[in-house]
Amino acid sequence: MNTLPTAGAGYLDDLYARFLKDPLSVDPSLWAMFAPYADRSDGVRSEAAGDGRLAVACERLMTAWRLYGHLASSLDPLDLNQAPGHPDLSPSAHGLDDGDLDTPVAGTTPRDLEARLRAAWGGRFTAEVMHVEDRAARDWLIEAVEGGLYADPAVDERRGRLDALLAADAMETFMNKRLPTNKRFGLEGLESLIVLLEAIVGDAARAGMDKAVIAPMHRGRLTLITRLVGKPLTAAFSELLGTPQVPEGTEASSDVPYHLGFTGERSFTDADGTERRIRLTMPSNPSHVEIVSAVTLGKTRATLDLRRRDGEADPTARVLPLLIHTDGAFSGQGVIAEMLQLAGLPAYGVGGSVHVLVNNQLAFTVKPEHGRSSRHPSDVAKAIGAPVIHVSSEDVDACARAGRIALEYRRKFGKDILVDIVGFRRRGHNELEEPMFTEPVRYTRIAETPGIPQRYAEACAAAGVVSETDAQAMVESHWSTLDDAFDRAKSYKPNAADRLQGRWSSLSTVGEGAVPVTGVGAARLRRLAEASVAVPEGFALNAKIARQWGERLDTLDDGINFGTAEALAFASLLEDGKAVRLTGQDSRRGTFSQRHAVVFDQKTGAEHTPLAELATSPHHLTFADSPLTEEACMAFEYGISITDPDALVCWEAQFGDFANGAQAVIDQFLVAGDDKWLRQSGLVLMLPHGLEGGGPEHSSARPERFLQMAARNNISVVACGSPANLFHALRRQLLAPWRRPLVLLTSKSGLRHAEAQSKLSEMGAGTRFRPVIDDAGVECDARKVVLTSGKTYFDLAAARRERGIDDIALVRIEELYPVSETAIAEILKKHPEAEVVWAQEEPENMGAWRHLDPHLARILGGLRESGARATYVGRDAAPSPAVGWGVWHKAEQAAVIEAALA
């Protein structure tokens, strides 16, 4: 940036001369200093001043078009939505009258300049770039738009684009004829999307990228997954015909065809004839379709980290995240704003993403003016400074150009960029609805509008790119291929389920195989404990942390608490060569100041992560504080967990009920992903849980919700009262012969509870997770057996001791699902006459009671007379998880303890 001149008039003369030659080389804040030149009697200077006035006006006009040109662009293929324009786009707004328009200025005239600007920014292709803060990136984009980068396709490029359009058109028309009653969300009206995406993927392959992870959408899904990703047409038609895509006997619920993903491979040819191959992965997704974008970013991040562990220096140059959205969802779904904020964060970065927004100009039946307040559905992306390219689906070559510029921008600058392709839905939201109910004018115009493939074919024929005969041959070839695939689909049956391949091939179906031994030798545990608190010489450790860590080592033989158990689990896995990733709000310190995975020098602020010394590489360990969001962050971690089976991936909520913000991720992905899509996940949800007077929003991790969704071994729900069990549960995630999500109801007050301790031997060699822990103090013939879990055990144990009770056994059910009925039955056999009680601190309609009741009835029915049932002890059913006033909480808690021990 230029500074204010302090020299004499000669310096100002030189600065003014430079301004006339290149206005952008002088800070615009200095332009006002040149006004006196217009009043000078010097002929040369008067002429120069006149040129300067025109130059400044032209520069302002140029800036206006770069800022507001998108408001004058012709993006709607139906020409129903007229561009609003902007007053600053007129030359007169900058003092250019009719007499100035043909005056030469720097080799052009204002009239010619305006025409070129209108052609660059105001047609069926435009962009918003002036909000980009990186000057080099902004200048590159301006030059790409105004300089016509990729604007002149070769003949073979246009021929390939025509083939893609005709293939898409044939696919959609074929399905509409052969499967008229199937809901498939066709691509008609936006066929140019396939050209845009192939341009991105093709350029990526030619640039040396060998993998693209694509976040899908519903619109045109079957065309995209077959044409772009390479799914066999026979398999796709078989799905549409309703044939199960798993062998007989495979236990799975499956999903509808337009939700299913696929991994394929495409090849593209360089200019020199070299074949470049790229692997394309499109994950499955539910109808909460925008969540899959965050999942895809997680999958991309996992791929990058795996490659970094293998020694690849810059994997972002070879892996492309390509995220496809639709207009109503992109502007309306909060997960998009959350996801975009992850782009520049160290623990979530993927080297920039290419976003493609499929703009239907209609969300189901909601018009844009009713569905968003912003001008464009893409405006939310500008919050992170992402440039936006707008293009009409009407201009096929411009669509390809937009995709190529976006890919090149991502390659050059490693940042997010968005392409907004504007089109329409020819058959409504789906093929079974009647769009004329709500959009009669639009759909009358659509019915009168020829298809893009047909018009592009005519244009190519007119330009000599192909003959009409060649174009017809392309169409017939595609139809012949579709006919053949459809006939074969009628008898198609898959040979094997699409699961547990590649890195996952050594694993088995969940539940098959023995629960592993997860213990570690005592000597190794001691060494790992020391490593978990080691700091460099001279590091100024906080005094409170130093005391806490000193106690960790001093009490190894007396009792290990939850913080130590967790650190030992992480440390042992890292030393085994596994990866550990823990993210969440305040997770590095821990919400309750219990973890301190990262510590800070009290003098310099320098960070130190003790466990990093045990990691095989820097890319094997991540402790990161997340943004104050849940949905996108949990989805991101889920994406990592379904990509890397050798990483312990943990997401921690600040308080357990914060998982509410990610309920769609839990419902649609976490608990059902393996059942619907045959994709295992080992994600750990760490959810602080316990009623301790914190009020309704800081008490419950809502275990009842997880237990209601528990079936077919889909998840593990654990409420640890034993630090040793926490250690084993975490290690079991990677040592088991399968991967299954772990919902961990972690302790709060128990983190420092005197009785929440485990012996070192409970984690020693040969030990493993104990789903049920018996009461060693009451071995047989108890008057009452109280079954409980989590922190309630310690409350009951303290009260029992205070009252001197010795005939009530307290049995901890540590794993609430899957329920170990055998272990519970073995304990109850020792107390044949005992009253059996389930005690919980949560209200009756929450917690584990309603889930466990039928299990306990089945157990007792097998041990005693028919109809024997356990008794419930706990709070009455309530709409809120906990009361707010402390005095009420204490009274309720005392009543629970009294009833359990009565």
From TrEMBL:
UniProt keyword list: Glycolysis, Oxidoreductase, Thiamine pyrophosphate
Any Pfam family the entry gives: Transket_pyr
GO biological process, one term: glycolytic process
Cross-referenced Gene3D superfamilies: 3.40.50.12470, 3.40.50.970, Multifunctional 2-oxoglutarate metabolism enzyme, C-terminal domain, TPP helical domain
Enzyme class: oxidoreductase
Organism domain of life: Bacteria
Stretches for region Disordered: 82-105
Functional note: E1 component of the 2-oxoglutarate dehydrogenase (OGDH) complex which catalyzes the decarboxylation of 2-oxoglutarate, the first step in the conversion of 2-oxoglutarate to succinyl-CoA and CO(2).
NCBIfam families listed in its UniProt record: 2oxo_dh_E1 (TIGR00239), PRK09404.1 (NF006914), PRK12270.1 (NF008907)
Signal sequence extent: none
Keyword Membrane found: no
Enzyme Commission code(s) on record: 1.2.4.2
InterPro entries associated with the record: 2-oxogl_dehyd_N (IPR032106), 2oxoglutarate_DH_E1 (IPR011603), DH_E1 (IPR001017), KGD_C_sf (IPR042179), ODO-1/KGD_C (IPR031717), THDP-binding (IPR029061), Transketolase-like_Pyr-bd (IPR005475)
Gene Ontology CC terms, in alphabetical order: cytosol; oxoglutarate dehydrogenase complex
Protein name as catalogued: 2-oxoglutarate dehydrogenase E1 component
Subunit structure: Homodimer. Part of the 2-oxoglutarate dehydrogenase (OGDH) complex composed of E1 (2-oxoglutarate dehydrogenase), E2 (dihydrolipoamide succinyltransferase) and E3 (dihydrolipoamide dehydrogenase); the complex contains multiple copies of the three enzymatic components (E1, E2 and E3).
GO molecular function, one term: oxoglutarate dehydrogenase (succinyl-transferring) activity
Domain Transketolase-like pyrimidine-binding: 560-753
Cofactor section: thiamine diphosphate
Family the entry assigns: Belongs to the alpha-ketoglutarate dehydrogenase family.
